[in-house]
């Protein structure tokens, strides 16, 4: 009886799905970290700083204007800690502040935000951070504090770059607070402007550990379609051949240079695009918490197909 039990295989037990391509999760609110972790995600592929700020009613620019930089650093540490602690030792890619000017306007303290005719093409992401380096400095100081406490699972991801000089200047700011890019911490960027995708080799030459596709923006800028304008929403698709061509070319060039590739835009939750990305050899897909289990299954299915095809070829010797 005992011997028989040992040889019995329980076919009803479901093993956790393991995929070669990592499946990560996007986190916006520190409080949502636990739920995001419970999906079994392989890390956080996008931590949206501005949402954490917006949710807590914090206008970072106001802190700087009032000379309360230390307070801003502490608030950042407090929020980031909640995520990196839950996920430790899995990596969390912290994206530096990227809020279009209209987003903080409605908050108390946001009254002084400038009026822009088109905030999506305006003062946001790395452009604003390099104009107001105190914010970026505060973010790097917060990250350094966490690193010094042993949270080595943080990576820095810069938003909306369109020229390598922006990457170089951001690294200089990191160094000015004692944070050495690539040595102390992985340093990467979002690929979400067509310019950055087209000249990705120039960014690679500047030094990059990873890139992540921000397809929400990459699609809006490639197709010249405001992602928030319902009148043109029917034309908005990440499956447009021009967007796909940019994605494929960046993956190819990054793979050749040993730079890790990922996606954190909504296209990472769309089966037809995930299939193409996995086939192209993307390293990870980062999706919203609710989508993680479905994406994991989908990735497993695509990988199985790829492996079976490779096995078939090998067995048949052609
Ligand atoms: C993106 O542009 O795809 C992205 C993930 O960033 P956000 O949606 O925050 O602009
Ligand atoms: Mg974006």
3D structure, described in words:
- The N and C termini lie far apart (48 Å).
- α9 (164-176) links the parallel β4 and β5 (186-191).
- α7 packs across α8 (133-148).
- This protein has helices spanning 2-7, 33-37, 49-55, 60-65, 69-87, 101-105, 125-131, 133-148, 164-176, 194-198, 200-206, 215-222, 241-257, 271-280, 292-316; strands at residues 22-27, 44-48, 92-95, 154-158, 186-191, 210-213, 260-263, 284-288.
- The protein is globular, with a radius of gyration of 21 Å.
- The longest helix has 25 residues, at 292-316.
- An eight-stranded parallel barrel has the order 1-2-3-4-5-6-7-8, surrounded by five helices.
- It contains 15 helices and eight strands.
- It has 318 residues and is α/β, with parallel strands linked by helices.
- Helix content is 49%, strand content 12%.
- Bound molecules: phosphoenolpyruvate and magnesium ion.
- Magnesium ion binds at residues 159, 192, 214, 216-217.
Class per helix and strand makeup = alpha/beta
Gross morphology is globular
Write out the strand line-up for the largest beta sheet, numbering strands in chain order: 1-2-3-4-5-6-7-8
Give me the strand/helix succession.
HEHEHHHEHHHEHEHHEHHEHEH
Proportion of helical residues? 40-55%
Mean pLDDT: 93
Supply the number of helical segments: 15
Bound small molecules, which ones? phosphoenolpyruvate, magnesium ion
Largest sheet geometry: 8 strands, parallel, barrel
Rg result: 21 Å
Report the end-to-end length measured between terminal Cα atoms: 48 Å
Strand content: 5-15%
Quaternary class: single chain
Question: Which residues sit in consecutive blocks of at least 5 with pLDDT less than 50?
Answer: 1-5
Q: Would you report the number of β strands?
A: 8
């Amino acid at each position: 009886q005992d011997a028989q039990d040992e040889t019995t295989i329980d076919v009803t037990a479901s093993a956790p799905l393991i995929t070669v391509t990592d499946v990560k999760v996007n986190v916006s609110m520190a409080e949502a970290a636990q739920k995001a972790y419970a999906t079994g995600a392989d890390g956080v592929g996008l931590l949206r700083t501005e949402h954490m700020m917006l949710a807590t009613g914090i206008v970072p620019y106001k802190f700087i204007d009032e000379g309360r930089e230390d307070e801003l650093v502490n608030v950042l540490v407090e929020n980031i800690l909640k995520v990196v602690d839950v996920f430790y030792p899995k990596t969390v890619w912290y994206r530096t502040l990227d809020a279009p000017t209209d987003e903080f306007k409605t908050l108390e303290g946001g009254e002084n935000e400038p009026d822009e005719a088109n905030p999506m093409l305006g003062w946001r992401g790395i452009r604003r951070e390099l104009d107001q380096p105190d914010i970026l400095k505060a973010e790097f100081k917060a990250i350094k504090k966490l690193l010094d406490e042993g949270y080595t699972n943080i990576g820095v991801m810069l938003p909306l770059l369109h020229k390598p000089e922006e990457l170089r200047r951001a690294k200089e700011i990191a160094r000015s607070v004692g944070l050495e890019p690539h040595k102390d911490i992985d340093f990467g960027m979002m690929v979400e402007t067509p310019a950055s995708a087209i000249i990705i080799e120039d960014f690679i030459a500047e030094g990059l550990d990873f890139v992540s596709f921000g397809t929400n923006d990459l699609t809006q800028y490639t197709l010249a379609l405001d992602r928030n304008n319902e009148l043109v929403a029917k034309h908005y698709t990440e499956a447009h051949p021009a967007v796909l061509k940019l994605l494929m070319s960046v993956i190819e060039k990054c793979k050749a240079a040993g730079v890790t590739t990922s996606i954190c835009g909504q296209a990472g939750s769309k089966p037809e695009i995930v299939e193409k990305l996995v086939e192209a050899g993307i390293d990870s897909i980062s999706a919203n918490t609710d989508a993680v289990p479905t994406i994991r299954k989908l990735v497993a299915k695509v990988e199985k197909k790829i492996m079976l095809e490779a096995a078939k070829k090998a067995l048949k010797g052609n």
